[in-house]
Amino acid sequence: APREQLGMSTCAGTWRPLSLVFLLGMAAGDVGCPSGCSCGYLEVNCTGQQLQEFPTAIPLDTRQLILAANNVSYLPAVELSFLADLVYLDCQKNLLGDDLDFTFVGVVKLVYLDLSFNNLTQVTFSTFSQLPSLVVLKISDNPNLVVIEKDAFANNTWLRHLDVSRTGLTFLDASTVQDLPYLRLLGLSDNLWHCNCSFLDFITWMTESSVHFPGEGYADNITCHTPEALHALRMPAAKVQLHASCQTHLHKRDYIFLCFIGFCIFFAGTVVAWLAGICAVIYQIHSSKEEEEEEEEDAV
Question: Where does the sequence pass through the membrane (predicted)?
Answer without folding.
Answer: 255-283
